[in-house]
Amino acid sequence: MEVLRPPLININGRIYRKNPVQEETYEEEEEDYSYSEAAVDQCLDEPCDAHNIEQTDRGFRCTLDVPSVLYKYIIGKKGETRRRLESETKTSINIPKQGVEGQIVVTGAHRPSVSSAVTRIEVLIDSFRRKQPFTHFLSFALNHAQVRDGFLRFREEVLEHCAQDSGVDVSIFQNPDKLHLTVGTLVLLNQQEVTRANELLHQCQDIIREITGAEALPVEVRGVEYMNDDPSMVDVLYAKVSDQDGSDRLQQISDRLVECFVSAGLMERERDRVKIHATVMNTLFRRDPSAEDRGAPARANPRDREAFNATNILQMFGDFYFGAFELNSVQISQRFSTDSTGYYSSAGHITFS
User: Fold this and answer.
1) 3-state DSSP call for residue 177?
2) Which of 3, 11, 40, 155 is 20 to 30 A from 245, alpha carbon to alpha carbon?
3) Rounded distance, CA 56 to CA 65, Å?
4) Is the pLDDT of residue 59 over 70?
5) Residue 99: per-residue pLDDT
């Protein structure tokens, strides 16, 4: 990371520079909820209008909605992080008990000091939020009967003709009920954040219907590709998904959804455009059949994976036709979940028509 060009982070629609700091990790954070009154004699250089800070008869006050799972990062080991924040900003930081969803309350004698404390808490939380595993993802369900039957035929034929190839066995195939296209991943740590994501998705409905003409989108699933440069050492094999009419409306919808969620600070942009693909084989499934494809297999620990030789699969099934159907919805899917149809449980969805 360049010191003169630090990365920018989006927190609730506000952009901050992230300066290099040494982060500490703790096995266990001690709960410490005592505070001391403090005053400040100078104004810190934080924007005073960036937060909803209210004036009280004792000074100024601001509340933050923070998922309880992240409290420990503000408290720190034996309360050190919170005490340091309070000392440096001359504020008092009130945090609910661990596991209790509520608001963090920052109070101080001066508006700039409260604004400074809130900004630092937000940046701190954002840093640790990025390290949390994703909990939900925007998805297009591809488990339509025709595509599902095509996938089962693909699996049967691959096992018939390529089972002798290194690493190829039934355990690495996707669950046919959970065939999907991942648009982007989300870290939603409490019900309030799930509700916010669902509301945002519904705000995107008009944009999507403008692209589709308020009609379902005919798509087809045809052909397979791999995600690295050596077909003999493959971790993920995916099916290609495209518009039947040759347009790029599926790509447009995916990119606009990501743009909307990134702008709101609910999603990280991983690439310029969404990679339109549906995982059909993944070596992560070998150990964990419920593992979802992150869309970035290189991040996984190589020791947790046993690659397979896809050379013959690509030669024999490179243009395999899985099927076609009319795609009519996008949903917020919950990771490691299953609904009554066998697909992922939905935390919200919108339709194209």
Assistant:
1) helix
2) 155
3) 20
4) yes
5) 84
SS3 call for 52: coil
Q: Which tokens belong to 259?
A: 């743009």
- The full DSSP string for 287-325 is T-TTPPP-S-GGGS-GGG---B--HHHHHHHTT-EEEEE
pTM above 0.90, yes or no: no
Q: What value does the CA radius of gyration of the chain take, rounded to a whole number of Å? A: 24
CB 349 within 8 A of CB 204: no
Q: Can you list the positions of beta strands (E) in 88-176?
A: 91-94, 103-108, 136-141
Q: What are phi and psi of 176, to 5 degrees?
A: -60, -30
Q: State in Å, rounded, how far the first CA of the chain is from the last one.
A: 45
What does each C-alpha distance from 304 to 173, 235, 286 come to in angstroms?
A: 17, 11, 9
Determine whether 102 is exposed, middle or buried from the number of CB atoms within 10 Å of its CB (0-12, 13-18, 19+).
middle
Task: Give residue 153's Cα distance to chain centre.
Answer: 32
Sequence-ordered list of residues with C-beta below 8 angstroms from that of 99, at least 6 positions apart, any chain: 68
H/E stretch holding 329:
strand 329-334
Q: In percent, how much of the chain has pLDDT > 90?
A: 75
* Residue 288 pLDDT: 74
The answer to whether 104 touches 63, Cβ cutoff 8 Å, is yes
The DSSP-derived string for 69-93 is GGHHHHH-GGGHHHHHHHHHHTEEE
C-alpha distances in Å from residue 316, one per residue of 158, 233, 234, 311: 9, 17, 16, 9
By C-alpha distance, which of 148, 187, 145, 198 is closest to 330?
Answer: 198
Residue 297 — pLDDT band, cuts 50, 70, 90?
A: very low
As a whole number of angstroms, the distance between CA 201 and CA 196 comes to: 9
8 A C-beta contact, residue 235 and residue 305: yes
